Each structure stands twice: as structure tokens, then as C-alpha cells.
Amino acid sequence: MIRQVEIVEVGARDGLQNEPEILPTDTKIALIERAVAAGVRRIETASFVNPRRVPQMADAEAVMAALPDQPGVTWIGLVLNQRGAERALATRCHELGAVAVASDTFGIRNQGQTSQDSVAEAAQIVAMARSAGKSAQVTISAAFGCPFEGEVDPDRVVEMAEVLAASDPREIALADTIGVAVPSQVKDLIARVRAAVGSIPVRAHFHNTRNTGLANAWAACEAGVATLDSSLGGLGGCPFAPRATGNIPTEDLGYLLARSGVATGLDLDRLIEAGQWLTGTMGRPLPAMVSRAGNFPPSPVASDTSGALS
Ligand code: ZN
Q: Where in the sequence is the domain holding 158, given as residue range(s)?
């Protein structure tokens, strides 16, 4: 069992990309600054995709330009093709996140690439980042199930991971893009992928669409994963599942890990404050539960309930 986990905050990208509202650039910066203040050291800040297809990310360059100078913090830009990589490499991005898709139908609908083409494109993106002196990692999306094709063959995911490992990315992530995975599946697939990619670390990315997200995150840790994605508030739905909730919430994941003795480097009280701020900003309740219920044991100020429980 892993005793230390790095949490990658993806709310400003995966979260907001899947919300109907388009937030102003300075609100995105405020969200990112709050995550950094709570101790997050790797953050997905923007997606360099077609602004006509994803208007929520149309200000990617403006977000990158407005980010504060934060030594020790890695800004990650998501890119789906070489054009996106060129755009991202022209900004203050430290790391490119490429995406290979485990199913052809999802790949073609999401990024106009078959599964095999997406693997080749991701390898190109890793090479471009390296020659620009930057870091790059690859996420295998729909690794646990496809919204169009249904079951995804785990052999296919393992084979993709093997091919991608040859391009030597910083890490390879398995993403449950539509939130269908369960812990036994997570353990099995992660064990197989870890065995196939040698020394390359495996990251995991879960959505809580069917309420299995935190259980899956825990199963991933038990399978040796030391880096997990999450979004403050549990922001983000899924365009292919209209009533879906978003990524696993950062404050809920932080609570689970902290109370289990797994170090994350995050300040849970500040995460909860950030989640509450985000709830106010979005103007509606968000899926995260710890920012509603509060930390435990309560901090001294929060525990002063004198007179409230008579
Ligand atoms: Zn996602």
C-alpha cells in the first residue's frame, strides 16, 4: 500500500470544460491560486483544443499568461494533437498532457482520431515536449469503458500502454472518463499496466458518475498508484452522460487519504475553504461532501458550537 500520494488538481480544466457555464479568466486564476495555497503542486490549467468545440477553454493562452509565478508548481496543459502542442509549448506550460483513446468511436467523436492514431499522435506530442525541454505524460481515456462501444478490452489498454511507454513519457494515466469502473477492475487493470510499462509511473483519473470514484481511487492506491487526479468541489460533468457528476472531489479524496495515514501535502482546511468558495462562485451545490460536512476532527474554531446544540 502506498503511503504518499500526489494529487493533481484538474478542476480548472477537466472540471470547467464539462460545465455549461464559461467562467471568466480571472475566476479560473482564482481557483488555481486557491488550489496552490492548499498545497497542490501539479495543476491542469488549460486545454489547448479547438475553441469552437470547447468554448470553456477558449482563453487557454490568457490563463497561462495570467498564472502567478509559483516555484515548485507544475502547470499542465492538455493537448490532443500537434497543433495543440505547438500552442501549449508557446506558453508557460511546464508539462503537456496528451490523450490516447481506448476505443475508436470515442476517439473519433472526441478528437477525430482512431485509437491507434491517437497513440501515434500522443507519442509525437511527447517527443515535441521533450525537444522543447518540457515534460509530457499521456492519459489513456475510456480505459475502463466507452460511452459508445461499451466494454473496453483490457488487453487493448495494456497494449496501448506498452506502445506509449516506448515514447518514454513522465507517466501514463488510466482514465475512467465516463465513471463506470469498479475497484476490482481498477486493481486488475492497473496491475497489468504497471507490469507492462516498466519503471514509468501510472497515474489514475476517476469520475464519480456511478458513485464508485473514491472506492476506485483507494483501489488504485492499493494497486501501487501514487498519483491521482481530482477536482475541487467535484466539478465537471461529462458531455456523453448528461446527468453525470464530475471528477472525484479533491477535498473528499484529501480527507480519505489523510484519515487513512496517506500523506498528500495538502491542507484540508484550506481545500474545504476553496471548495466552499467554488460552490459560491458556481452558485449551486457541488458534488463534494467534505466541504459541506466539514473536516474531522473539527478545527478549534469550527468546533466552537457553544449554544448551538442545546
Ligand atoms: Zn476526466
A: 6-302
